[in-house]
């Protein structure tokens, strides 16, 4: 009897279909709904959710393998699934603010239906919440719950999300800040199709508006004074764990993009036979050397991500400075891989008839995710100086 496929192998079997549609979604800026129907049918939407809530409770290293396989095929799909996995993992953390019944509902929906969740934090005026500041989105207390109004941007997966975890402040005299769980089909929720970016064009990272949206009292997950989110052992440890896991999954995603670029390049070098050379480009020592450099970058990423996954799955918690450096190094290496492939393929690599230019546009998005380079390197420098 054949052994059952691992989650990464299941993702790999889906990847060919995802890859065949990726160029079309990129050109159109359309959302890959069919990919998520297949992911749900394959049992991968609830892979990260705690077993106690009906999920599979997969180790974060397994999640990284799945995201890497999907990043190789359709990184926009992989990014939306990354956000689902991060939200599901948050439900199982020690001291999690999720009401058990609500968390179980979200997980069970993703087991039986195409149901996804993501956090909506970024706003037009606020920028990245990781850099501080109060959100302009306001939650007003009512007799039977809350009403939320505001504007969120870069809401990855907006066309398919069923649940929105909205970062907002209260309208109290001394505002508290926290997350509120909102159904995307609630009256007053509107998705504005604004996403028209250079890379990850199929991620549906649109704006979302909230106009006096009602929700039950228990959908306020946790409300604290703003300063309490940044200080205290529990808050610091939770943020540290989330950053490390996100670094791993994002590193795996963009390494998947880089591997796709490398695979295309290998085929190009083997098939391209200029008349002036009379042989394949693969026979040139210069091409072999450049490809060897690409292999080295991919090996560094593989080792960095493998080590981080092993640490996390063993219960370790890397310092934020360390996981930030892993995120920065792996995403920069991914960009370097694609740029190296472009240098070897010249006009062929830049042609929209080939996937390499798309891989470059997608890889460049890796630099945008929190933590960004300046924050990473300042933190690492302070850590080295003992500050």
Structure notes:
The chain has 387 residues and is of the alpha+beta class. The chain has 3 domains: 7-114, Acyl-CoA dehydrogenase/oxidase, N-terminal domain (Butyryl-Coa Dehydrogenase, subunit A, domain 1, Orthogonal Bundle), CATH 1.10.540.10; 119-226, Butyryl-CoA Dehydrogenase, subunit A, domain 2, CATH 2.40.110; 233-385, Butyryl-CoA Dehydrogenase, subunit A, domain 3 (Up-down Bundle), CATH 1.20.140. The protein has helices at 7-28, 33-41, 60-73, 75-90, 100-112, 226-230, 233-271, 285-313, 320-345, 347-350, 356-364, 373-385; strands at 116-120, 138-142, 145-155, 161-170, 177-183, 189-192, 206-216, 220-224. Strands 1, 2, 3, 4, 5, 6, 7 and 8 form an 8-stranded mixed β-sheet that branches. Strand 4 (161-170) and strand 5 (177-183) form a beta hairpin. Helix 3 (60-73) runs parallel beside helix 7 (233-271) and helix 7 runs antiparallel to helix 8. The longest helix is centred in the middle third of the chain and has 39 residues, at 233-271. The model has no long low-confidence stretch (mean pLDDT 94).
Helix content, binned percent: 40-55%
Q: Which CATH class of the largest domain applies here? A: Mainly Alpha
Give the CATH superfamily of the largest domain: Butyryl-CoA Dehydrogenase, subunit A, domain 3
| Class based on secondary structure composition and strand pairing | alpha+beta
Name the poorly predicted regions.
none
Distance between the termini: 58 Å
What is the molecular shape?
A: globular
Reading the helices and strands in chain order gives HHHHHEEEEEEEEHHHHHHH
Main sheet characteristics: 8 strands, mixed
In the CATH hierarchy, what is the architecture of the largest domain at level 2?
Up-down Bundle
């Amino acid at each position: 009897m054949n052994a059952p496929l691992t989650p990464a192998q299941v993702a790999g079997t889906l990847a060919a279909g995802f890859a065949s549609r990726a160029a079309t979604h990129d050109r159109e800026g359309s959302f890959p709904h069919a990919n998520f129907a297949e992911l749900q049918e394959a049992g991968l939407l609830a892979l990260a959710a705690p077993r106690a809530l009906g999920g599979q409770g997969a180790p974060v290293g397994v999640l990284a393998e799945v995201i890497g396989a999907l990043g190789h095929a359709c990184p926009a799909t992989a990014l939306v699934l990354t956000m689902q996995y991060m939200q599901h993992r948050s439900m199982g953390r020690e001291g999690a603010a999720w009401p058990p019944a609500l968390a179980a509902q979200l997980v069970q929906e993703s087991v039986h239906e195409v149901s996804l969740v993501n956090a909506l934090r970024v706003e037009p005026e606020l920028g990245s919440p990781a850099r501080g500041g109060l959100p302009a989105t306001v939650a007003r207390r009512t007799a039977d719950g809350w009403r939320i109004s505001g504007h969120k941007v870069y809401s990855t997966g907006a066309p398919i999300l069923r649940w929105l975890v909205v970062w907002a402040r209260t309208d109290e005299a001394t505002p508290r800040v926290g997350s509120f769980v909102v159904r995307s089909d609630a009256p007053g929720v509107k998705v504005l199709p604004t996403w028209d970016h250079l890379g990850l064009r199929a991620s549906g990272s649109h704006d979302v508006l909230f106009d006096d949206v009602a929700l039950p009292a228990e959908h306020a997950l946790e409300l604290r004074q703003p300063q309490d989110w940044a200080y205290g052992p529990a808050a610091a440890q939770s943020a540290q764990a989330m950053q490390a896991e996100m670094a791993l999954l994002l590193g795996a995603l963009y390494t998947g993009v880089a591997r796709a670029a490398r695979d295309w390049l290998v085929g190009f070098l083997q098939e391209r036979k200029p008349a002036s050379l009379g042989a394949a480009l693969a026979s040139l020592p210069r091409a072999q050397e450049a490809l060897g450099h690409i292999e080295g970058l991919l090996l560094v990423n593989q080792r960095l991500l493998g080590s981080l996954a092993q640490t996390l799955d063993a219960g370790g918690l890397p310092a934020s400075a360390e996981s930030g450096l892993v995120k920065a190094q792996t995403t920069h290496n991914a960009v370097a891989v694609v740029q190296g492939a472009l240098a070897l393929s010249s006009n062929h690599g830049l042609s929209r008839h080939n996937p390499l230019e798309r891989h470059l546009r997608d890889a460049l998005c890796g630099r945008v995710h929190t933590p960004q380079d300046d924050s990473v390197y300042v933190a690492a420098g302070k850590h080295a100086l003992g500050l």
